[in-house]
Amino acid sequence: MDAFLINGGNRLKGTITVNGAKNSALPILAATLMVEGEIILKDVPDLRDVNTMCQLLTKLGVQVQRQENGDLHLTVLDEMNCHAEYDLVRQMRASVCIMGPMLAKRKKAQVALPGGCAIGDRPVNLHVQGLEALGAESELLSGDVHLKAKKLLGTELFLGGPFGSTVTGTANVMMAAALAQGRTVIESAACEPEVVDLGNFLNACGAQVTGHGSPRITIDGVKELRGCEYTVIPDRIEAGTFMIASAITNGELHLKNCKPEHLLAVIDKLRHIGVIVEKDNGGVVVSSARRLEPVEVTTLPYPGFPTDLQAQLMTLLCLADGNSVITERIFADRFLHVAELGRMGAHLRKEGSTVIVEGVKRLIGAPVMASDLRASAALVLAGLVAKGQTRVSRVYHIDRGYEQIEKRLIAIGADIQRIDEQIP
Question: Which residues are registered as beta bridge partners of 109?
Answer without folding.
Answer: 147
